Amino acid sequence: MISVSTHVLDTSAGRAASGVRVELLGVGAATTDADGRARLAEGLAPGEYVLVFHPPSPFFRRVELTIALEDGHYHVPLLVSPYGCASYRGS
């Protein structure tokens, strides 16, 4: 079984980013909670998916990642500030 979750952190403010819309294209969307976390999907088939963040940044309006999912749980955080953004595969 494949599942995807995320965590959005506003590094300029030093805290979680709540209320951020996150989409897993063709699957569904969610909004981050007060802790900046969102569960996006469960029971996915293996393959490539597009994850789209709409972060609280005056410069980065849309951050899009193509991710390859094989098996298990995938946690894909986004670190964002007005000057940069980064992502990684979390645990």
Describe the structure.
The protein has 91 residues and is mostly beta strands. It has one domain: Immunoglobulin-like. 0% of the residues lie in helices and 57% in strands. The chain has no helices and 10 strands. It has strands spanning 2-10, 15-16, 21-24, 28-31, 37-44, 47-54, 63-69, 72-75, 78-80, 85-87. The strands form 2 sheets. Strands 1, 2, 5, 8, 9 and 10 form a 6-stranded mixed beta sheet that branches. It has a 4-stranded antiparallel beta sheet with strand order 4-3-6-7, with no helix packed on it. The protein is globular, with a radius of gyration of 12 Å. The chain starts with a strand and ends with a strand. The mean pLDDT is 96.
Any low-confidence stretches, pLDDT <50, length ≥5?
none
Q: How far apart are the termini?
A: 16 Å
The chain-level structural class is mainly beta
CATH homologous superfamily descriptor = Transthyretin/hydroxyisourate hydrolase domain
Radius of gyration: 12 Å
CATH topology: Immunoglobulin-like
The secondary-structure element order is: EEEEEEEEEE
- Average residue-wise pLDDT: 96
Q: Briefly, what CATH class?
A: Mainly Beta
Major beta-sheet overview: 6 strands, mixed
Number of E-state strands: 10
Gross geometry: globular
When the domains are counted, the total is 1
* Fraction of residues in β-strands: over 45%
Task: Provide the helix percentage.
Answer: under 10%
Instruction: Compute the number of helices.
Output: 0
